[in-house]
Amino acid sequence: MKRALKQTIAAPHRLGFLAGGVLLLLSFTWWGVHMLGRWQGLVLPSAVVPMFLHAYSMTYSFFPLFMLGFIYTAGPRWLSVPSPSLRRYAPVMLGYLLGGIVVIASTVNTSLLVLGISVQAIAWLAGLALWIRAILNSQVTDQLHARVIALAFTLGLIGLLSAVFWAATGNTIAWLWSVQIGVWGLLLPVFLAVSHRMIPFFSGTALQPYSPWRPTWWLYTLVGCSLLRIVLIGFQINTFIVDAIMASVLLYTTWRWDLRKSFKVKLLAMLHAAFAWAGLAMLLSSISEVLKLAGHNGLGFASLHALTLGFFCCMLLAFVTRVTLGHSGRPLLTGGVAWTCYWSMHGVALARVLGEIFPAIQAAAYALAALLALLALVAWSRVYLPMYWQARVDGAAG
Fold it and tell me: Which residues contact 212 (CB under 8 A, 6 or more apart)?
């Protein structure tokens, strides 16, 4: 037990990924049970409106912990500064984990909701302070990605504070702002920044010949559009133009980064294929907004779930699998469980999107998505979560 604990706190990614994995399983299990129950005509009891809790937990529950685990491990290398000490990052991650568990427990006691979100907001503030401190201490000239992530983390704090207000007052406008800021202000900018920095780099080292492409205008354009989208939604302005710009850039990038060629290396293909969902999501959003302009119903939450399940969740599995293998001393090779679980998550995203577009199959599609997600995440966790409390197989530290 002591040895396992020692290994868990040996590096920031170990604790962050383990804590994130716990909340990932809890969040998807809770929602999966609700979806399967709804498919059977059962409405399961919940002290908090399930839709509200689902949106919050899928935005703020597990993603931030994976982000902290990654950025406290890779970020100091980007900035040429020391990694944060255990006594600084452990309270942040453990506090956020505790808050997340309390949030999920609010399904049986609504008074726990404001407590759990408040704890997460405090932990996130401390985590943000650590990252800003690293940036201020850095002498590196190129801090673009680090600063974009700092901006996103700051917006994430604003989103969490809005969620605290929702939990305390029941104000659904505050809930909506919290979710919109979380998706377009926190999650998408972080995923874009990390993809922009890491995918061309990984591709350049794994594929030859390969010419990495990552212009700075790309990040400014997409992050700027993502933030502008929050404003447009807030004022109930149609987002077609912004969505079309994002879709064009992202789909071009999928081609430019050479999705087809990436399949020569499975672990690399996982990153590229997950990224492809970003362009598809914004294309779906563009189509939905055009339909609304024409006086028709849009595509519901199809584009949102293409983005969150397709891009965010599939990319999460891809990146975390790669980092876990590399930092556990294992070869950067994947197959079997990881490969199957990863493509199962693509199936989850596809089922959820099709359920929005074709209402006649909605109930069955939602149930299929829930079942696939549970099977994939449990199977992946069974293999990869133990690696965070096990020693590296090559005997190295970290």
Answer: 200, 201, 203, 204
Instruction: Check if the beta carbon of residue 256 is closer than 8 Å to that of residue 212.
Output: no
- Give the integer Cα–Cα distance in Å for 24 and 381: 10
Those residues with Cβ within 8 angstroms of residue 199's Cβ, 6 or more apart along the chain or in another chain:
257, 271, 272, 275
pLDDT tens-digit series, residues 216-264: 999 999 999 999 999 999 999 999 999 999 999 999 999 999 999 999 9
Tell me, letter by letter, the H, E, C secondary structure of 150-185: HHHHHHHHHHHHHHHHHHHHCCHHHHHHHHHHHHHH
Which 8-state DSSP code applies to residue 396? -
Contacts of 289 (CB under 8 A, 6+ apart): 238, 239, 240, 243, 298
346's CB contacts (< 8 A; 6+ apart) are 273, 310, 314
Nearest 10 degrees: Cα torsion 277, 159, 71, 135: 130
Rounded average pLDDT over 306-322: 97
Give the separation between CA 142 and CA 140, rounded to whole angstroms.
6
Q: Where are the beta strands (DSSP E) in the chain?
A: none
DSSP state of 85: P
Helices (H), the chain: 2-8, 12-39, 50-60, 63-79, 86-105, 111-137, 144-169, 172-181, 188-206, 216-234, 240-256, 259-262, 266-293, 302-305, 314-327, 336-357, 362-384
The total number of residues shown for the chain amounts to 398
Nearest 5°: the CA angle 175, 239, 356 is 70
Q: Which CATH superfamily is domain 2-388 in?
A: Cytochrome c oxidase-like, subunit I domain (1.20.210.10)
How far is Cα 382 from Cα 121, in angstroms, rounded to an integer? 30
- The whole-angstrom separation of Cα 155 and Cα 159 is 6
Taking the model in full, what pTM does it have? 0.97
Gyration radius of the chain's alpha carbons: 20
